[in-house]
């Protein structure tokens, strides 16, 4: 039987690092950054990890020396990245350069886009990619890309990547065929998003594959939200239509479904969507993918908001050369014609716009789930109060809900279930205890 060890994602949301080992093959399923674990020791940006040895000592990275940049021969055949959220790939920067990264084409593009506009690595030594004005784009890792329908072959196992719906493009689940068992790993997925058909396809294929072990996320066992992306679009359209000043909305800048939703809601109301230079840089990359239905930054209904900087980085310069950008004073004059995508970290710039009476703030992301998030949320409320901005909430989760998850497990009928990416695995264990599968609650492994 294959050995499965969970080095990250056990009893925590994100940070997935799952080691799969057969007689002849050794792989990691994701190699994500543990944000919750880091917060116990670090205070970004004032105190941050500097090298993998520190993270190993703290139990945040696997204590396997051959994984990292040293003189040892890597014992790992590769990392199978499910999607481009940092909590699934963010620690890949520490891995030995000879370890290939397997991922979907969109995931590769989004990882490199992240690196080009601000690396996840603590220093140049650990860069996955880099973009400079003098040398252009550089990639320092071996990316092996795939799409649904491909099969990745290793010595004694094969992997079928199958698309799923999530709050970021390019998300995949895996069906893994080993000599003695078949394993499925969901990554992050949902059934209430705009492409639920992708997830349904995975469930159908997993059921047909007769899965022995299912490794699934269970993020939303607590605090599940039943709203869909269609609900969010309806809410945004109505709120924008009832607002006679500036509309500000915030969401994860890599949530392309939400960006598309905001664009459509703004357009219906005769407004232009204002995005950041970083969002524009991302769109410039992924609009090349014909499989993604997304607008171009030169679209007449798109404006690009640029912060006043004395120096611009290479990625910012690309955007300035491609399209006109607007500063706060310029947006002040067209408030009733725009919907601005911004966040808590943009509040200094929003003060320059000086939202007129009747303006509105729409929070379109998950509510705070820890003390640090609560503190930031209170600060955001203080900013909104100072500027006279009422706050609405309009969000749909990127993760599967409890009832849908239980039904998915029931359909796939695995012999064994390993829940990851959840803070409450025992709650899930009791919730699905009437299903005919053995439930193994994982414990975090260090060695």
Automatic annotation (TrEMBL):
Residues 14-225 form the Metallo-beta-lactamase domain. CDD domains: metallo-hydrolase-like_MBL-fold (cd07732). Keywords: Exonuclease, Hydrolase, Nuclease, RNA-binding. The keyword RNA-binding applies. GO terms for molecular function: exonuclease activity; RNA binding. It comes from the Archaea. InterPro entries: Metallo-B-lactamas, RibonucZ/Hydroxyglut_hydro, RMMBL, RNase_J_2. PANTHER family: RIBONUCLEASE J. This is mRNA degradation ribonuclease J1/J2. It comes from Methanohalarchaeum thermophilum. The lineage of its organism: Archaea, Methanobacteriati, Methanobacteriota, Methanonatronarchaeia, Methanonatronarchaeales.
């Amino acid at each position: 039987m294959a050995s499965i060890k969970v080095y990250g994602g056990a009893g925590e949301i994100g940070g997935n690092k799952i080691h799969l080992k057969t007689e002849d093959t050794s792989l990691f399923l994701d190699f994500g950054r543990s944000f919750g674990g880091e917060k116990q020791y670090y205070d970004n940006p004032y105190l941050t990890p500097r090298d993998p040895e520190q993270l190993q000592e703290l139990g945040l990275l696997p204590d396997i020396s051959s994984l990292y940049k040293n003189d040892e021969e890597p014992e790992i055949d590769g990392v199978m990245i499910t999607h481009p959220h940092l909590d699934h790939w963010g620690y890949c920067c520490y891995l030995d350069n000879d370890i290939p990264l397997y991922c979907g084409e969109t995931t590769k593009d989004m990882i490199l886009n992240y690196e080009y506009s601000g690396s996840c690595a603590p220093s140049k030594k650990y860069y996955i990619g880099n973009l400079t004005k003098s040398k252009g784009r550089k990639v320092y890792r071996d990316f092996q890309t795939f799409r649904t329908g491909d099969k990745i072959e290793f010595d004694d196992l094969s992997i079928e990547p199958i698309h799923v719906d999530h709050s970021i493009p390019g998300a995949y689940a895996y069906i893994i065929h080993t000599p003695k068992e078949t394993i499925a790993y969901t990554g992050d997925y949902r059934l209430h998003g705009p492409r639920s058909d992708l997830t349904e396809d995975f469930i159908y294929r997993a059921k047909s594959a007769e899965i022995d072990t299912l490794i699934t996320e269970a993020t939303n066992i607590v605090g599940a939200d039943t709203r869909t992306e269609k609900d969010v679009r309806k809410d945004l359209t109505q709120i924008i239509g009832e607002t006679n000043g500036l509309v500000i909305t915030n969401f994860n800048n890599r949530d392309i479904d939400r960006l598309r939703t905001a664009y459509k809601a703004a357009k219906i109301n005769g407004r232009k969507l204002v995005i950041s230079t970083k969002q524009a840089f991302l769109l410039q990359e992924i609009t090349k993918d014909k499989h993604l239905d997304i607008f171009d930054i030169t679209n007449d209904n798109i404006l690009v908001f640029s912060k006043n900087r004395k120096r611009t980085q290479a990625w910012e310069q690309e955007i300035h050369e491609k399209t006109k950008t607007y500063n706060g004073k310029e947006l002040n004059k067209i408030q009733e014609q725009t919907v601005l995508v911004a966040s808590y970290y943009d509040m200094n710039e929003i003060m320059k716009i000086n939202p007129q009476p009747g303006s509105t703030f729409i929070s379109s992301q998950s509510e705070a789930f820890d003390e640090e998030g609560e503190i930031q949320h209170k600060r955001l409320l203080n900013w909104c109060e100072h500027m006279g901005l009422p706050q609405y909430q309009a969000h749909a989760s990127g993760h599967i809900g409890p009832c849908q998850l239980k039904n998915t497990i029931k359909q796939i009928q695995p012999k064994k279930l390993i829940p990851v990416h959840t803070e409450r695995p025992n709650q899930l264990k009791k919730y699905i205890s009437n299903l005919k599968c053995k439930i193994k609650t994982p414990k975090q492994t260090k060695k």
